[in-house]
Amino acid sequence: MHRRRRYDRVTRSLHGLVAVQILAQFSLALAWKAAGHGLHAQMVRLHVSLGLCLAVTLMLRMLWRALYAPRLPAISASRWTILARLVHGLLYVIMTAEVATGILKRWALGLPVSAFGLIGIPPPFQAGASLFTAVSTVHSLLAWALIGLALCHVLAALFHRVILRDDVLASMIGR
Length: 175
Prior knowledge:
Number of strands: 2
Number of helices: 5
Number of domains: 1
Distance between the termini: 16 Å
Strand content: under 5%
Shape: elongated
Helix content: over 70%
Order of helices and strands: HHHEEHH
Strand order of the largest sheet: 1-2
């Protein structure tokens, strides 16, 4: 068995925090469809606030990965390794695009992007309903793509643990 080093605590913590934030955002968006008007508006404001928190966490994660995170050796130079790198890259692209389209949605409505009512970033342009509709559709499609790709990511980790019986999952969770 090839012995892999573990990812450091910061890398593992940021990974887990991003995962929890994405699941919370997705769940909140699904739940507000059934909420009454007043609760729906509060849930949207919370979603926007948490989205800004996700943006900050994602930036920290990418910065940490670029500057400090160890590069673990690949198990092999197989097509699976190439696929894993492609999936990771795609996850980062989709997460970044999801945050960007979320911000753009608010601005397309002429609304500021606000975090818990403390800070507000006003829209830098005037837009209309057609931009909002287009960006909203892209934001929704990206959310589903992100959840689907993240599920594949989880299944791949379990595949490593259960089928391949290697220590890829252990390196990710710190064991």
